[in-house]
Amino acid sequence: MTPHLNIPKTLLMGAIVTVSALSSQIASADQLADMKARGTMVCGTLTSTEPLGYQDPQTRQIVGFDVDMCKALAQHMGLKMEHKGLSIEQRVPELSTGRVDVVSAALGYTKERAQQISFSSAHYQVPIRVMVKKNSGLDSFAKLADKRISAVKSATTEIYARRGLTKSEIVTYQDGPSAFLALMQDKVDGFSTSETAGLRYLVESKGEATYIKDSLAWEPTALGVKKDEPALLAAVNKSLEDMEKAGEIDSIWNKWYGPTTRFAFAREKKLTPISTFAQ
């Protein structure tokens, strides 16, 4: 028979308060403090989208604009960058579960996504366009009615295509190369893509593809952090501000998109508070 323990009520209540306080501390853990404690920032980028994040054929390393942004951000925050490759679909879940600290992966701002994760200031903005074959005769969105348009599954290019091309059939693929290949193989009639990501495909088409002149949207692109981590978000935004003032973001951009590259795409819009787009 188990002996009955007479535990003073005040001691029992004290124990409950202590456990409750510890639980509260764990629940409100500071991710920035954790990052500083371990000395690293885990940053997620794409791995198959040139020049944002892709495998260098010589070094076999993942390189690109987003990778360099991660490195510079980590340096400004006094941390070492730890890289993690992500697919389009993994970006929000990996942030939400804390498996990555920051996402720098063509992450377009939408109000829907802002309910799940937090966005830094937008460090660049790009138009969302539709690529077609030059000989197709498709030179306006009106002519895309009843046509098949490819897009990357769960990307903002899919969202904007569904919003702007309501009379078209949107066909999704796992990544940009597959969605582009579908266009080149005539499985679809158009390909919804950001202009920056699509520049690579225009080059690869060897003159066969072009953009319809209109744009589906003008998309702000930012870095992502986990929801309800104000200290981390503030530190990321402060670092981006410092990088902008020092010309670092322009320097990284020009390395991958500047006039001497095969993409030659200007960064017209500078760092902009994300609240500008949340109205």
UniProtKB/TrEMBL annotation:
PROSITE patterns: SBP_BACTERIAL_3 (PS01039)
Protein name as annotated: ABC transporter substrate-binding protein
Species annotation: Herbaspirillum lusitanum
Any Pfam family hit: SBP_bac_3
Record InterPro entries: Bact_solute-bind_prot3 (IPR051455), SBP_3_CS (IPR018313), Solute-binding_3/MltF_N (IPR001638)
Listed SUPFAM superfamilies: Periplasmic binding protein-like II
Family per similarity comment: Belongs to the bacterial solute-binding protein 3 family.
Domain Solute-binding protein family 3/N-terminal positions: 40-260
Keywords for this protein: Signal, Transport
Residues annotated as signal peptide: 1-29
